[in-house]
Amino acid sequence: MKQKEVLIVGQGLAGTVLAFELHFAGVDVCIVNNPQKSAASRVAAGMVNPLVFKRMTKSWMVDELLPVMKKRYRELQELLGERFYFDLPMIKPLSEQETELWQERKADKRFAPFIEIVDESCPIDYLQESHTYGIVKGSGYLNTGRFLDRARHFFQQNKMLIEADFPVDGKGFEDRIFQDVEFDKIVFCEGHHLKTHPLFDFIRLQPAKGEVLQIYAPDLSENYIINRRVFVLPIGNHRFKVGSTYEWEDLTDTPTEKGKTSIVERLKDLIHVNYTIEEHWAGVRPTVADRRPVLGKHPQLEHTYVFNGLGTKGVMLVPYFASEMKQLILDNNYRVSDEVNLKRFFSF
């Protein structure tokens, strides 16, 4: 029987980064993951945007999140021997009304790290004409598929990964034993599957399906992310991820013609360039009703934790809150902020 201090269920973005956090802290950790399950992390665009365009505010906690995010992904790139995080400025075509608000924000020193310029000239060809164009700094993307694949290889090489389903209603869970592994604590990082989890069904999860296209557009600039009603994200070799959609009824990971049409129609209003659709993916985001992550210990089961609800901002949120989750697991007296604490859902 192998002894492990922490068992993590789920090797999406949350479970993967948490596993590294614990591993770096000298904790003997094991991950259980079913690769056949839907994994929103793998099909996600992985985009990082420090601003919320709808209200033209800074993204929640962005000043704290970005430095931690960049440091951690840089360290993981060195460990895994491959680059998978890329800084890339973002272009936002602006209306006349939006231009006024952006110019106000640009004059505000709190926005200085994130707004490069608001200008009438567009730095790239083939964008539909707009009143002005805002350039965002601090944006970029994580190649989530490559990162998770490299992490999986690392975990396999270090005998830290079991590829299987983890049943929560069996005797093994009560005895803290899975296959030939005996564990002290367990953390569930299962994304949208948490909604049907018998131990955490009190969490107000609102999963949202999203669809993304990959296009080939050899004439389009790869120097910027473009974002207006749809994002166009360069991923190399004249390929771009384009998305996304929101669907709350159909929570399968099956791409739909409706989703594809929605993306193509919005893309037509953004760029005028020839392109070919090469791929079409779908995944389900683990979004919480209050749009905040969920970290904490089960109210009745001392050894059982949850780390979830990272949603559309997961790439930026995960490194910071994986560190918080590590502290929570290792120190019984540690408290995470009320905004992300699992206790906000307790009603018993």
TrEMBL record:
GO terms for cellular component: cytoplasm
Pfam families according to UniProt: DAO (PF01266)
Residue span, FAD dependent oxidoreductase domain: 6-326
InterPro entries, sorted: FAD-dep_OxRdtase, FAD/NAD-bd_sf
Keyword Oxidoreductase: yes
A GO term, aspect molecular function: oxidoreductase activity
Name of the molecule in the record: FAD-binding oxidoreductase
Organism: Draconibacterium halophilum
Phylogenetic placement of the source organism: Bacteria, Pseudomonadati, Bacteroidota, Bacteroidia, Marinilabiliales
